[in-house]
Amino acid sequence: MVDVTRSFGKLRLDALQLPAGRVLGGPQLEHAIACHGTLAIAADSTGGADTILALTVEYLKTREQFGRLIGSFQALKHRCADHKMALVAAEAILDDAVSSTAADQEAWPDLSAAKVAASEAYAALAQDAVQLHGGIGFTWEHVCHLFLKRAKLNQSLFGSTGWHLDQIGRQLAA
């Protein structure tokens, strides 16, 4: 799956030797990068979900089928409402994670919850948006596929949903 909205690459440095004083980071920096990266992916997911939901609702308001706007069909309204509820919940969980991180608390349970809620809501919405857009949603010319690819990648970056759920479970069991 290609996500043209992100750049990735590999850099391999064979036989590179750095003096100990030139090595950046350590465990504390790694922890900070993991925390902020997880938070960034959760924020990216809520923003992406909000955008694709707005695009989808706008499309449903303008597309006619069977002599009616497709946005007037109750089943489609309910699908959008369900996605909006999941998005609002993900945003609230993300706000808690931001507060925990800013307060220098042990924020991992909140970060994991935010990552899971946001990335799962985004992926479900992006997948549904392709279908709600009908035939145009499946084409390369429309942006739906970009949101879907980004949402699927967000599910994996900085830990999968399963990994984060395990972390939450361990914290609750401790």
From TrEMBL:
One of its GO terms (molecular function) is acyl-CoA dehydrogenase activity. Pfam families: Acyl-CoA_dh_1. The keyword Repressor does not apply. Keywords: FAD, Flavoprotein, Oxidoreductase. Residues 37-172 form the Acyl-CoA dehydrogenase/oxidase C-terminal domain. Gene3D superfamilies: Butyryl-CoA Dehydrogenase, subunit A, domain 3. InterPro entries: AcylCo_DH-like_C (IPR036250), AcylCo_DH/oxidase_C (IPR009075). Coiled coil: none annotated. This is Acyl-CoA dehydrogenase/oxidase C-terminal domain-containing protein. The lineage of its organism: Bacteria, Pseudomonadati, Pseudomonadota, Alphaproteobacteria, Sphingomonadales.
